[in-house]
């Protein structure tokens, strides 16, 4: 048995719907299965999804307040008032700022921009920067990707006499800021039909309204901010991201060319994963470690050399960020070592002096990934007496709402259901941890604390090809609310397996289903090579990719998880050196079973724990899942009894024997006849004295003569008198098989043939037949 790391939630689409979509849309079955599992049951709906058009774009004037915004901006331009665009320091905020600045500049506005420093100003509107803007002659502030929670700073700006327009998409609180205009897709009274825009999406809609036409030149910026901010990739966002990715693949933007250059990718290969895993982290890195302005400058510049220099700076910052993240993650996990993943707090709250606030969201994500608990990671500033950090959550725990219940001790926070940022007094950290864990008792069930992986569809291996994998691009872009598919291949065999990598920590396999073969790669899963026994049927989940090498393309599965409910038999017979097979045995939950006292003595120096004689083991219940059978039983029924009374998930068959009866064999009747004839002639014979000479003369082993002598003794043909074998008189006719030694030798030879020398397949079948018969009632069984 191999236990999966997560709970698999497999979608099994209606086969009739699959066949209809496959036929009507002329798409491979893999695509049809994914669409059907995502709820597309009508051809018209599937077509609309596959061929999304500009009809998805909504009129920006459906936003309440948009007409007033356009009027106020044009008033400022006409009056030559200075406008400040106030952004945020992440990729969404940087791209939002870029769009708003470019739009205002194209309209002839006097525009500057400012982005808060997360270490000085924190998240959102800053009184310091608003004062600075006022001193620089700003009359109108337009926030992008922030502002909805900046009540006091905006009130401060209004007090200075500046007008404030808030454009944001973050979760609004109970009270809204005293801004002159608020453009937000998800306010209570909003009439805008799509509530899932990113901050950059809202900025794009404002640009659309101001420019009186769709600003197509900004598609690539919207795509970057939308993907990086992990908002829903459906509806309007799906169209914007699709168009943005196409634009980047054929771009004349020096910023995109520079980012592609330092990321080592070709423009034509840019997709949502490129943005999410290569561009996004680099753009975010500057704001995480210091000033985010270089990110905006990268997108504003038209100078290729300047763009490349800025991109290289972002790249170096990203490397620095990665190093800091690793250090803090290691320290955070040290704080949690006292808890096991299943016994720790329901909500993780950790913190330390000196932790960089700019990367704590990433660390929180890593803790969620490892422990599957909502996690808050805080940096402590003892001089200012504050704790500042980020949170990441899991399904079922609405982080923003749960934090909102604690506004009395967390005065500054903002975010989404799955992520948040906050600042609170240092002395309130322990209280926050206690409260959130109390809240989790009612909002999180035990089931919700088990990580779940949603699998779109189980596939047959004959459905997988390079062509079908290529066709999956029609379903892109993948992201929030339309995640990249996870595929499942069930009950397949492994035809070959080996560890790869310098540390042998990766896995390369070839899977087999009927006559179809499929390559599979498992990064960081090298240990599985020791856990998969031959002929075991396994189920895999993962991603399908195309591996291209020397011009040849092959489909391959990138393994995410693997499981089997089958018990497994591992063959370690004939490996006499214990140090060669013992490292393959799990340290936990394993018992070593011997059938003979001599075996206990033989292995006691190399196996120092959980070494049991079979009778002792059956008398006392011991918790274990795995068993190593060290030697052979004296008879088959002893092992059968063990198999019927005990249930193991893995059995390691060693079957050590000092002397093999099977290879020693039984002497032939001609050998018995010759030896008996010798004894008849001699009447008495000093076997111990002459056995060596006799063995040399006949070519038979000394053990053979000792065995035949024992058989004759048991049949009462001879007796032992003063160390001599003496032939008895008046012998009764008896068959050799009547001697116990002869019978035992026959049984032992048969047992060795079945267990020690049988091919693996036959040995597995022997165990299968005996495991299938349970003679003990379930309630009386001892589970080892």
The largest sheet is: 5 strands, parallel
Q: Please give the count of helices.
A: 28
How many individual β-strands? 26
Percentage of residues in helical conformation: 40-55%
As a whole number of angstroms, the C-alpha radius of gyration is: 37 Å
Low-confidence residue ranges: 774-784
Range of strand content? 15-25%
Shape: elongated
Enumerate the strands of the largest sheet in spatial order, edge to edge or round the barrel.
Answer: 3-2-4-5-6
Give the structural class.
Answer: alpha/beta
Euclidean distance between termini CA atoms: 15 Å
Question: What is the arithmetic mean of pLDDT?
Answer: 92
Q: Would you kindly provide a written description of the structure presented here, covering whatever features stand out?
A:
- The protein has 784 residues and is α/β, with parallel strands linked by helices.
- 41% of the residues lie in helices and 20% in strands.
- The strands form six sheets. The chain has a five-stranded parallel β-sheet with strand order 3-2-4-5-6, with helices on both faces. The chain has a five-stranded mixed β-sheet with strand order 7-8-9-11-10. A five-stranded mixed barrel has the order 14-15-16-18-17.
- Helix 15 links the parallel strand 7 and strand 8.
- Helix 5 crosses helix 13 and helix 8 packs antiparallel against helix 9 (219-228).
- The radius of gyration is 37 Å and the shape is elongated.
């Amino acid at each position: 048995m191999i236990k999966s790391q997560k709970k698999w939630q497999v979608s099994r689409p209606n086969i009739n719907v699959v066949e209809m979509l496959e036929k009507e849309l002329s798409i491979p079955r893999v695509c049809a299965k994914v669409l059907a599992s995502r709820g597309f049951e009508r051809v018209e709906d599937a077509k609309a999804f596959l061929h999304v058009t500009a009809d998805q774009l909504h009129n920006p004037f459906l936003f309440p307040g948009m007409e007033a915004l356009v009027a106020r901006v044009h008033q400022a331009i006409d009056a030559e008032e200075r406008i400040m665009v106030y952004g945020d320091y992440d990729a969404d905020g940087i791209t939002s700022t870029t769009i708003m600045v470019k739009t205002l500049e194209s309209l002839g506005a006097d525009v500057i921009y400012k982005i808060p420093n997360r270490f000085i100003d924190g998240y959102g509107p800053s009184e310091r920067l608003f004062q600075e803007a006022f001193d620089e002659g700003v009359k109108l502030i337009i926030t992008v990707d922030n502002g909805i929670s900046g009540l006091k700073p905006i009130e401060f700006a209004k007090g200075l006499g500046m007008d404030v327009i808030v454009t944001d998409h973050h979760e609004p609180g109970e009270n809204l800021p005293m801004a002159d205009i608020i453009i937000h897709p998800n306010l209570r009274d909003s009439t805008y039909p799509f509530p899932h825009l990113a901050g950059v999406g809202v900025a794009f809609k404002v640009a659309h309204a101001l420019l009186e036409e769709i600003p197509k030149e900004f598609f690539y910026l919207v795509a970057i901010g939308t993907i990086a901010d992990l908002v829903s990739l459906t509806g309007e966002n799906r169209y914007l991201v699709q168009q943005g990715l196409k634009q980047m693949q054929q771009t004349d933007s020096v910023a995109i060319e520079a980012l592609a250059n330092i990321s080592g990718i070709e423009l034509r290969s840019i997709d949502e994963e490129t943005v999410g895993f290569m561009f996004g982290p680099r753009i975010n890195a500057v704001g995480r470690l210091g000033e985010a302005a270089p990110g905006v400058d990268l997108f504003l510049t038209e100078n290729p050399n300047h763009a490349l220099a800025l991109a290289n700076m972002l790249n170096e910052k990203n490397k620095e960020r990665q190093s800091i993240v690793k250090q803090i993650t290691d320290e955070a996990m040290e704080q949690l070592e006292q808890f096991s993943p299943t016994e720790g707090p329901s909500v993780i709250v950790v913190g330390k002096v000196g932790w960089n606030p700019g990367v704590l969201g990433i660390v929180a994500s890593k803790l969620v990934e490892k422990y599957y608990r909502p996690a808050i990671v805080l940096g402590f500033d003892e001089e200012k007496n504050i704790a500042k950090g980020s949170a990441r959550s899991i399904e079922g725990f609405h982080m923003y709402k749960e934090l909102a219940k604690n506004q009395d001790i967390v005065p500054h926070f903002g975010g989404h259901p799955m992520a948040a940022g906050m600042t609170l007094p240092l002395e309130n950290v322990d209280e926050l941890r206690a409260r959130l864990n109390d809240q989790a008792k009612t909002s999180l069930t035990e089931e919700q604390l088990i990580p779940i992986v949603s699998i779109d569809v189980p596939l047959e291996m004959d459905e997988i090809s390079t062509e079908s994998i290529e066709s999956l691009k029609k379903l892109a872009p993948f992201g929030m609310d339309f995640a990249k598919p996870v595929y499942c291949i069930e009950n397949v065999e492994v035809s070959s397996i080996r560890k790869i990598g310098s540390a042998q920590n990766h896995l390369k396999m070839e899977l087999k289903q009927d006559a179809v073969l499929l390559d599979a790669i498992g990064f960081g899963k090298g240990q599985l090579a020791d856990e998969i026994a031959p002929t075991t049927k396994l189920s895999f989940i993962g991603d399908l990719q195309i591996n291209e090498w020397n011009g040849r393309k092959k489909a391959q599965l990138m393994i995410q998880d693997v499981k089997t409910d089958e018990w497994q038999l591992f063959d370690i017979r004939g490996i006499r050196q214990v140090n060669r097979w013992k490292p393959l045995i799990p340290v936990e939950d394993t018992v070593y079973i011997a059938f003979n006292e001599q075996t206990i003595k033989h292995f006691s120096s190399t196996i120092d724990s959980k070494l049991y004689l079979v009778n002792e083991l059956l008398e006392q219940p011991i918790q274990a899942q795995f068993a190593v059978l060290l030697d052979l039983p004296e008879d088959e029924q002893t092992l059968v009894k063990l198999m019927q009374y005990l249930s193991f998930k893995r059995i390691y068959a060693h079957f050590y024997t000092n002397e093999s009866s099977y290879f020693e064999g039984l002497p032939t009747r001609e050998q018995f006849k010759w030896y008996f004839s010798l004894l008849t002639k001699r009447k008495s014979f000093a076997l111990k004295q002459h056995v060596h000479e006799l063995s040399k003369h006949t070519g038979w082993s000394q053990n053979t003569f000792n065995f035949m002598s024992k058989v004759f003794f048991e049949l009462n043909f001879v007796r032992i008198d003063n160390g001599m074998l003496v032939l008895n008189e008046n012998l009764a006719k008896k068959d050799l098989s009547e001697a116990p030694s002869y019978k035992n030798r026959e049984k032992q030879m048969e047992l060795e043939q079945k267990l020690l020398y049988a091919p693996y397949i036959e040995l597995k079948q022997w165990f299968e037949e005996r495991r299938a018969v349970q003679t003990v009632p379930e309630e009386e069984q001892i589970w080892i």
